[in-house]
Structure formats: C-alpha cells, structure tokens
Amino acid sequence: MKKILQSSILLMGLFIAVNTQGQTLRYLDEVFSNVVVDTTIAYGANKSYLTGFAITDSLYMDVYRPAGDTSTNRPVVILMHAGSYLPGSLTGLGWANRRENCLVELCNRYAKRGWVAVSISYRLGWNPQGNQNTRTGTILNAVYRSMQDAKTCIRYFRNDAANGSDQWGIDPTKFVLGGTNSGAYTALAAGNLNKPSEIVVDKFLDSLGNSFIDTTKTGNFDGWGGTQNVENYVGISAEFNAVLPLGGAIGDTSWIEVGEAPVIAFSGVSDVGTPFNTGIVSTQAGTVPIIEVSGAGDFMPYVAALGNNSGFSPNSFAVADSNRSTNDGINFFRSAPVDGLYPFWGVGFEPWNWYDPFLPPASNPNATQTIAMAYIDTIMGYANPRLYRLLFDATYGNPSGLHEVKGAIEMNVFPSPASNKLNVIINSLQKPISSIRLLDVTGRLAKEITNVNAYSESIDVSNMSSGVYLLNLMLTDGTTSTKRVAID
C-alpha cells in the first residue's frame, strides 16, 4: 500500500510539473502543422546598381504563414540571404537568394509557431575588382542600399496594416529583422547605422577625405531622398524590435549606441570570411583587402554593456555553453558571458545552411542538411525564448514569473519533437546536471544518463519510440525538475 501511495504521489508530481512547465505557447512553440507560402510578392521598387541606377526594379519577397490560422495580430520576422552582395550569376553561388535552404527552413519553423515569416530579395552589386577605394566604397554602398530595402519591407507590412487591408494579419508593433552572412550584415546596419557621424569614421573616407556614402545620391538612412533612390511608403515608420544576425559583422563598433535594437547573434568562431572579432574582410582567398569589420565577439559586449539587450537580460535562461568556452587566442569576454551571443566554436561559414552538392562554397564544402538542421535547432532553442520575453511576455523565464514554478530548475530543452538529438541546457548560475531520466507516460524508465556534471547534455533519442515523455533532471545538489518532451 505504501509503494502504491508513493507511486501515486510521484505521478501526481509529474502531472503538476508537466502542466506548469510543459505548456505549449504560441510564438514560442510549434502550434501549427502546415504552412502557406505566397511567393514573388513585390514589396517595393528601387534603382539598381547593376543597371547604373537607370532602371527601377521591383523588390520581391516570399511570405510564410501558418495554415488555418485565424489570428490577425501576428509578429513578423524578416530574413535576408547570403551571397556577398553579388548576383549568383557572377559568383556561381546558385543558393545565394531568398530561397536558400536555411531561410526556407527558418521561415517554415517560425510560421509553424504562428509568426508571419518573410524571406526577401534586396538590391545587389558592387565592384570587387577595382582599387582599394572602389572596393571599399562600393561594398559599403551595397550594404547601405540593402539596409534601405529591409526597411522598405517593414514599411510595406506596416503600410498594409495601416490602410485597413491588413491582408497578412500582422501586429504592426512587432518586427524582427535578421539574416545569414551578408543578410546579417544588413540587419545589423539597419539596427545601428543611423547618424551622419557614423559614416565619416576614418575607414569610411576615401583618399580625398570624403565619405564613401554620398547621401545626396543614396538617400538617407531611412531611404528618403537621393538621386539613385526611390522613396517607398513615405511617412511610414521602419522601426523594428530586434536583430537576429547569423554570421554577420558590423562596420564599426562606434555605431552601437544606447537604446538601439536588441541583438541575438550566432557566429562561427572560425569563419574565415567574417571575423568573429575585428579583422579585414577580403576577396580572392584573403589576398585582396576590402574593409575592416567587427564580428559578434567584439560588437556583442558593447550591445550588452549599453543595456540594449535588457528586454530579455539579465535573465534566467540557460547561458550558451559555448559562451563559457575557453579558447586561447580569441579575444572574447568569457569571464562574463554575453547574453544574446551564441558562438559556435571550431565552426566556419554558415554551418546552419546546406547547398546544392555541385555548388558548395569552398568555406563550407561538407555541409549537409542533417548537420545544418542541428544548428538550426540550436538557433531556435536559444533565440526564441529571448524573443518571446522581449515581444510577448516580460515575465517569461523569470523565477518569479507566471511561467515558472517556484524553485524549479531553469531549463531549456529543444527541439521538441526531437528525432535524433534532444538538447538540455540549464542556467550556469545553478549547480551542474547530475543525471537525466526519460520516463514514458506510465512512469517507466526509458533512458537514463548519469554522471553528467555539466550545464548541458545532448541525448541520443534516435532509437526511442515516438511519443510524449517526461524528462526528469537532477542537479548535483539534489534539486530536481521535470519537463514534457516529444519524440517523433
């Protein structure tokens, strides 16, 4: 009788834990199974560098929405592709467009969470074969034009909502702007390049002392004016709430100022194309310099120190294990992990992407969909709780908040459902993990990992049966917590 009572108490405790910690939240978790995609939608038009600014071309996007969703107040995430600001026809990179694999996957994942997800094309073109002035000047202007295009896309949606049609069912107060590689450079510029003084830093001046960016031609930071620019949606704001760069850099750390957009950044520390800290980006295998930029390892400490990430930090989320890594020779603030930065140590160019097997980039020749999916799992698992707190619920993840059980372990488990690997990360302010147990809904032990003694663990679930499980985690001080997970 005593054993039966103990078992009943245990199952009751598990039931309470599941209902308080394992709840499904729209915008954070996948709540839709299918996605509707509207392709080749014109969001604006502008003059192209590739035609000498003689022709005004349409700017296109693909829009992903949850199928069957009746909400009319959804947040928008806008993503931009890689490609070094050059057309694929010039580089041979057939994947560098708004339908490159990682962007399609990210857009689908956000749409399944209830977001409106957008992948955009933007204006391309610069001269990598000219002299130093030409190379530096034309690449800076390419970033500048793409930044204007990203803002045009935000204005398109906000204008649509303001005019009463609201065909996309968006919340005009909630936008996230991000991208991979070149698209990440663009998103960071849109979030931080906003003052005339920021384009007259020494490295942005030509040999005569003039800024490479001539706003009488390009227009201003918001896309108004300029002989080489078309104004789109005049009077509509292009403000946005957060930047989500995957592998990008910023022109200069002086661009970062108090009150600018929060940043959640991911970066391959060994990327030879974009420095993790501050360095020169080059063409032709590093032999022809273009310009000095600062990667996430250098610009993110500024973002954190200025309080720009205070909307989700300081937090009770798990600190990225890689954020606490030691790697001599990398000038990174490991003694005080930067919340909002997830460095991928030992990894180079775009590990979250995979390519046509006949056209892989030389910097990432072994990319596969399986590998890329694992990185995307990490990106979603790290970024989304922070975006959820920032945009939807300021108490989410706080020990005293509505979504936490008092005294519970601050735990992040992803992906769910999991097919191959289930990742568990806890807050490094707690004691390390001692053991992890997976129980089926009857309470039967299905898998156990002991002697972990770390703040994160990756569990192989590839041979486990599909279904819902209870993940019971114990710390080295004996504290326990349980969370519901799904395996498919």
Please describe what this structure looks like.
The structure is a single chain. Helix content is about 25%, strand content about 25%. The protein has about 500 residues and is α+β, with helices and mostly antiparallel strands. Strand 1 and strand 2 form a beta hairpin.
Number of extended strands:
18
Q: Can you write the helix and strand succession as a string?
A: HEEEHHEHEHHEEEEEHEHEEEEEEE
Low-confidence stretches: 1-21, 324-335, 399-408
Q: Helicity level, as a percent range?
A: 10-25%
Strand order of the largest sheet: 1-2-4-3-5-6
Derived from helix and strand composition plus strand pairing, the structural class reads alpha+beta
- Strand fraction equals 15-25%
Mean pLDDT: 85
Describe the main β-sheet briefly. 6 strands, mixed
Shape: globular
Q: Distance N terminus to C terminus?
A: 36 Å
Integer-rounded radius of gyration: 23 Å
Discrete helix count: 8
Short key terms for the protein model shown above:
disordered N terminus; four-stranded antiparallel β-sheet; globular; alpha+beta; 488 residues; six-stranded mixed β-sheet
